[in-house]
Design brief:
The structure is a single chain. By secondary structure, this protein is α+β, with helices and mostly antiparallel strands. It has a single domain (3-25, 37-195), classed as Mog1/PsbP, alpha/beta/alpha sandwich (Protein Transport Mog1p, Chain A). The chain has helices at residues 3-7, 9-22, 107-119, 176-191, and strands at residues 38-40, 54-57, 63-67, 72-73, 83-87, 90-98, 123-127, 130-135, 138-149, 152-162, 166-175, 194-195. The strands form two sheets. Strands 1, 4, 5, 6, 7, 8, 9, 10 and 11 form a nine-stranded mixed sheet that branches. It has a three-stranded antiparallel sheet with strand order 2-3-12. It is globular and about 40 Å long. The chain starts with a helix and ends in a 5-residue tail after the last strand.
Amino acid sequence: MTSGDRFGRHEAVDLRSLAVTVLTASVVALAAPATAGCSKGKSGGGGGVDVSGTPLKSKDGRFLLTLPKGWHTSTGLNAEASIEAEGPEGYVVVLTDPKEDLADPALAKYATSRAQAIMKNIEGGRIGPQLEVTVGGHRALQSELSGTTKGINVMYLLTVVETPSHLHQVLAWTTKSKFTSSRPKLAAITATFSETTPGL
């Protein structure tokens, strides 16, 4: 069975459109208060899942993800994304904001505002606890989000990574029924996020 068969043609199209529906990189939502609590974790990894494969650089060449076998670059998931990818387990996009463009670039506030922005666009949305992780040697906050949009129950793994001059959203998603089995791979892909030029 191919990845397309597993997702189903209609389901895959709808899942792709979810990124366009719920993701924005606007600074407006950053005014939302940071209310979510954080717990500590070790890393944003996927429990030893092998993701050695194809490096996929951002459009400006500054950042990258490594895609495992079966995954490939994608287009049309979000117009503002610097990296877009898809595979049998779901979809991943990366959106980046320069800290100098943000009135308050605090990691916790930014991560909470991103999660709240997604909640505004889905029904019955729930935000799980924020876990402090390390991605590419950088501080990050990771949380699971769930809800319903366009008639599909979907779950997101949102990881916000802080580098010296940027804040990055690494957002992976799939259907609720696939999330438990797909999460290790989605987390492992997220954990490969890194800078091509240190200090950015």
